[in-house]
Amino acid sequence: MPVAALRSACRLMSACRLQRIQAHMMCGHAGPEVLLERVGNAGVITLNRPKVLNALTLNMIRLIYPQLKKWEADTETSVVIIKGAGEKAFCAGGDVTAVAEAGKSGDRLVKDLFREEYTLNNAIGTCRKPYVALIGGITMGGGVGLSVHGQFRVATEKTLFAMPETAIGLFPDVGGGYFLPRLKGKLGLFLALTGFRLKGRDVLRAGVATHFVESEKISALEKDLVDLRSPSVDDVAKVLDAYQGQSTLDAEKPFVLQQHMKDIDRLFEATSVEGIMNNLKTDGSPFAQKQAEMLSKMSPTSLKLTLKQMQAGATMSLQEVFVMEYRLSQACMNGHDFYEGVRAVLIDKDQNPKWKPSTLEEVTEKSVEKSFQSLGEHDLRL
After folding, report:
1. What does the pLDDT look like over 90-110, one tens digit per residue?
2. DSSP designation for 165
3. Is 142 a catalytic residue?
4. To bridge 326 with a disulfide, which of 76, 170, 219, 380 should be the other Cys (CB 3.0-4.6 Å)?
């Protein structure tokens, strides 16, 4: 077969396989939790739990990690693409209800899930192949860990980003201690403490996404990516830039937080959560009052852990952050607030958690420091 004809046939096969995966994504029947397939020169990861917003499980992590490492070493695979099945979510986070149940029963899931999830997050952050996350829909918690550490994160008008962990007695993990402090000004700390939700193009404007492409063009973008022959990072960037250049949706709307950036930098400048709360209450503006009200609902312990996490992570390597966050995860699993937060927000849904301690003043510096202490031989090793 002539070379030109062979290339044409390969492109046709790639398109057909891509269509088959996309068709499978739309099916209502149960299937594998994650789909892993080579399409053209691309390794394609599809989170396949649309009915539960593609919530991440330990089994999914254990499927993705070895395949990612295999594709990274495979000379036939030039780019990795990750996406979520369905229209609503890329990945709404980890299955924290299952984690809470495991923690109550003493199951080792509370150790294994965090350890293996952070190991996967680090593999994404160090992957030598171009890694493209198509983060249309809800992208929170564990979904952020699967996307934000790769070279490319493509948001759409349907993207909804947040790290809402302080509301359930946890902290913005999966590397939140690395990427959030590196956003402009105090924006990352603001997002970490309040769980504020960014939507659509604002995910790009905040620096979380690298590109914005209208959702109706994502299928065409994906096809162009898998058709690339041995692409470099620059080649992938050119394709993404071209599609971003075509996007006009909401282009003229200002960043929703733009008018508040100076306020955020000023109000969240304090070195303690008590100081931030005092700034917010003293300021008295509607924006400040709203943030004070929001923080008053969060776990006081989580707020203090998160502030220290952000302060420390600002000068750490990605690997050092994951080691720190694993220590924090185990401290939370051994505490009270995570289980109470999951009960109040996700199980009983009464939205009325009873935090212990219940006030910021009762959360001592000693208890915070203890959560950051080494676990010795049980520390995360990367």
Report:
1. 999 998 999 999 999 999 999
2. G
3. yes
4. 380
